[in-house]
Structures are given as C-alpha cells and as structure tokens.
Amino acid sequence: MKKINCKISNKGNYSPPFMEGVRGWVFLLLLILFANFSDAKTAIVEENELRVSASLRSETKRPKRLKAKPKKKVRRKPHVVKVVEPKKTVQEEVIDAFSDSITTDSLMALLICDTLTNDTLPWPESLKARLDTIIMKSQTVKTSQFALMVYDLTADSLLYAVNEKQTLRPASTMKLLTAITALDKLGGSYQFKTYLKRTGEVVDSTHTLKGNVYVVGGMDPRFNRDDLIAFVESLKKLGIDTIAGNLCADRSFKDKDLLGEGWCWDDDNPVLSPLVYSRKDQMMERFVSELAEQGITLKGEIVDEVAPFAASEICSRAHSIDQILSRMMKESDNLYAESMYYHLAAALSKPARAAGAKYLEQLLMRRMGLDPSNYRLADGSGLSLYNYVTAELEVSFLRYAYENSTIYNQLIPSLPLAAYDGTLAKRLNGTKAAGSVRAKTGTLTCVSSLAGYAKASNGHVLAFCIINQGVLRGKNAKAFQDRVCVAMCK
Fold first, then answer.
1. pTM of the shown model
2. What 8-state DSSP symbol labels residue 121?
3. In the prediction, which pLDDT does 21 show?
4. Coil, helix or strand for 201?
5. Is 19 helix (H, G, I), strand (E, B) or coil?
C-alpha cells in the first residue's frame, strides 16, 4: 500500500490521517447531494437523525416513554419493471371478435356485433362506422377480393361502396340479372308452355291415329308426371288407342347446346333441353311408358322432328313465371334459371340462344346508363366461370326493379327471407336481420356472394351487393356477409 504522508506545518494545524478520510467522505456526500440522488439523500438524512436521536437519549435522562414497536426489517426485492397491458375496453373486445375463423360461431359474432358503440352516431353515419369496423377487422377481406355496395332506395342516395366497380364472379347472384330482365321483357303474366300436337285423322272404327304425335318442348322445368298423364288422357279423349305414325320430339324452341358457356365438366350441371323431365332429357321415353300403361300402342318410332305449321293442337300444359321464379330464387335452382334465360332469348328470336338473352340484358344496362362492355355475361344461372360483373351493376338492377313496381312486387316474394326460407333459412337467426333481409345467395368454388334488399331500423329500404372471391372457406365469407346484413338492419 502507498504510504500516506502527513505534512506537518506546525503543531497547531496537525491533521491526523483519519481526519483526511473523514473529509473525503464528506466531500463524497456533498457530490451525491448535488447530483440530486434523492433516495440516497433521504436515506442518509434519516440515518443521521436516528443516530443523533439515539445519542441524545443516551446522554440525557428523560421520563420513560412507551417505545414504538421496532419496524420489521423488510428485505428489498430486486427492482423488476413489470409491463402491464392496459385492460381492453368493451368495444375493443367486440372488434377482436370480428376476426374471421373457421371455428368462429357466426351467430355469436353477429350478436356481438349488435353491441357496437357506433350506435351512438346518427344514421347513416352509424351504419358507415359499423361497416368500416367490420371490413377493417375481417380476415376474409384481408386474404381475398371483395366488393360491397349499399344504396338507400328510400332516400335515393349511395350510402357505402368499396371496390364497387371491380369485376368479380357473381355466382348465383347472376340470377338477379336474369329474373329482372325477364320480368321486364316478358311481363308478370308470362307462361312456360309445352304442347301436344298431331297430324292426320283418327279412324273411329279402329281407334287409330293415321299420323304423327308431336311433343313441342317449351323448356318448362316444372313439367312433371301430372302433365304427362294429362297428355295421355287427351289422346284417349279423342278415342285413340293406336298411333300409326311416329312420336316426334320437337326441340326447335332452342339451339342444340346442352351445356352453358364456361361450365365446368365435373359440376352438377342441368341439361339444357326443351323437353326436360325430372331434370333430365328423358321426356319422350317416359311418355311412351305412360302410353303403354294407359293401353295406347305406338307403332312408329321416337324421332326428332319439328311439328308442321298445320299440326293440330291436342293439349297444352303451362306454368306461370311466378312458379318458375320462386324455385329459381329461393332454392337457387340452376335449371329453372337457365329455362328463364332461354325464354328471355326466345322473345327475341327462335331457336333461342344464350346470345339473345345477353343482348336483352345489355339493352337494359344501357337504359340504366351503364356500359355493357365493362362486363362479361355468359349464362343465366351464374354457373359459368366466364361471368364477370360488379357490385355496382347488381345494385343498379335492384334499383331498377325497385323503381318499377310490377317487377318489384313479383321479385320480392321470390327472394329468400333471412332466417325463414330458401337458402337463407339457416342464416341470420336471432339477429336484427332476421325477417328484414330478402336476398339471393351465390356459391361457387372460392366464390361467395349475397345481393338483395334490407330494411333498416328507420324504415328505409336498402339495396346491397356483397361479392367475395378467392375465399378458401365459404363459411368465413358468409359470416362476413351476415355481419354486413346485421349492420344494415340496426
């Protein structure tokens, strides 16, 4: 160790070595105090006060006082900074529930949606805020394409639109375009007819028809066994028990295409035949069987032949456009939709071709102020992968129907009613949208859509269209659509 040299100037100023140490400690204490170390300062002051107090008590005799209980020594724990996450508000918890998941209960998500504090805003700002929140927190929106448009028909104003001009596959919401165009062109009293005709005369003595029998197809998807039996009975009323000629299938109503443009070969596609029976092109074979059961003999063959203009009508069977429309929309029946599509085309020319129906749809678009070249139309059912429309286009058709009462009054009852019937029977149960949404659903591989009408809590009628494309789980897309519907009906 280094020696500590104590310099002695004179006897009176001698400072022993230990005093130098004291001065050092005092100097250090002053540095600490000036550096604002409050904790150290406080500790030292308290310690000094205790020492002074103890010294005074030992030097002076004072009356005894009750001694305070000594404080227990507390072992200080190491200082650890603990990060505490702030507790989520109710609204934040609600927003977190919007994350789409295959394990999420759609109904519970919808009920939670009803508690949004956005309700404090005036309408329609509250609706816009709810839709913003739903879109912002939706995983389906983040991982796929989507389009949404909401139009207030009562106020005749646009309420909300996102990607409304983006072309997407509509799936079965394409049926809305078919139905509205058909009602506009064909009218509400139009009928789907199938005729039974003949040539030649009936020989009374032998009960033989010396001629042919023609079944003139009208592509009526509702034609059933009752209709077929009615045909057989009409022959018997003429006293016929033998047909000397042929049984002819007149398929001149439409072209020979049995599949639509852009249909996948492995789908459950309807057969586009004007003589469909039980969803198959088998009417002639079934007719022969019914003739045999009723004791009528066919000596000729089953052939394809167009009935001559001079052929006499024996019987006709018909179904109204309302009957076709109801199943087409509520059950999303593709055969019924294609039948409607070809009847629309037949109003332009025969044989009916899909191109004719497209042309009439495009004419209606022009009347709405839209450019048909911005869209791709391929069929009437939405099965085709070549269909490309926009949410704006579908809402425009819904607006057109609403503005034409004769169309609207027939269209509305045909649409599925949320939580009650059709393809919406099991959706939106127990929510504000139950019984307040009438809409057409659409489902294809990786495509889900919903378009129609909703009634808001203030009584306004809204037209809307939601298209989700590129979705791997249809359940998530439907949950997103359901949330939008609940938001519109609040």
1. 0.77
2. S
3. 56
4. strand
5. helix
